[in-house]
Amino acid sequence: MLDKFSRSVVSADSSGKFVEDLAGLKSFVADGNKRLDAVNFISSNASCIVSDAVAGICCESEGLTAPGGGVYTTRKMAACLRDGDIILRYISYAVLAGDASVLNDRCLNGLKETYAALGVPTGNAARAVGIMKAAAVAFVNNTASQRKMTVTEKPGSCNGLAEEVANYFDAVVAAIS
Ligand SMILES: CCC1=C(C)/C(=C/C2=NC(=C\c3[nH]c(/C=C4\NC(=O)[C@H](C)[C@H]4CC)c(C)c3CCC(=O)O)/C(CCC(=O)O)=C2C)NC1=O
């Protein structure tokens, strides 16, 4: 697993250079509190984010809860909610580290094959990830209408971080599609 610092060292070493991305590392440090707040905001709303996404796909695709559907039986529904939780948790690790390697190596590696083997509908799974993305981005930007946090930062100051978070969700969709 790499974080923003170890990633810089590994890539400098592989080309035999000193670390050059010092400006990038400096802003990573400077934005540390924003990053911690973003992780806190995502993780403290995790069950809401996940259950809303799974409820969303069930409303949109009624076949999912019908006999033979992807979440038919409480066992499968529980597995689906758990997967949403796992994915969100690994994304929160990536946000903390400022690097996607923990998400890629420990969560996404082989997930597409697992879903194919079990017949988990990846289109619906990708849609659930998309709904989680919209919610998480709203939390990071502090625009979630019902759950605003009191922060000293100006509105929009977490745009860059929200974009990074969005990219992690996009990576999940790409990995299972
Ligand atoms: C380390 C990280 C990690 C990941 C990523 C992981 C995923 C994961 N999801 C699984 C199953 C599953 N995943 C789902 C998920 C869904 N079904 C749907 O229709 C929805 C679209 C979707 C929810 C959004 C379901 C229903 C199963 C059970 C499938 C079955 O057994 O038939 C399984 C098979 C074993 C099990 O049932 O526990 C794995 C390994 N496990 C891990 O340990």
Task: Explain how this protein is built.
This protein has a single domain, classed as Globin-like. The model has no long low-confidence stretch (mean pLDDT 96). The longest helix has 24 residues. Helix 3 packs antiparallel against helix 5 and helix 5 runs antiparallel to helix 6. By secondary structure, it is mainly alpha-helical. 71% of the residues lie in helices and 0% in strands. Phycocyanobilin binds next to helix 4, helix 5, helix 6, helix 7 and helix 8.
End-to-end span in angstroms?
A: 24 Å
SSE topology string: HHHHHHHHH
Number of helices in the DSSP assignment: 9
Instruction: Tell me the β content.
Output: under 5%
Question: Percent range for helical residues?
Answer: over 70%
Quick synopsis:
With 177 residues, the protein is mainly α. It has helices spanning 4-14, 22-30, 32-44, 46-60, 74-97, 101-108, 111-118, 122-140, 159-176.
Which SSEs are present, and which pair or pack?
Blueprint: H1 4-14, H2 22-30, H3 32-44, H4 46-60, H5 74-97, H6 101-108, H7 111-118, H8 122-140, H9 159-176
Helix pairs in contact: 3-5, 4-5, 4-8, 5-6, 5-9, 8-9
Phycocyanobilin is lined by residues 54, 57, 64, 70-71, 76, 79-80, 83-84, 86, 106-107, 111, 114, 118, 120-121, 124-125, 128.
Question: What distinguishing features does this structure have?
Answer:
9 helices, 177 residues, single chain, binds phycocyanobilin, 71% helix, Globin-like, mainly alpha
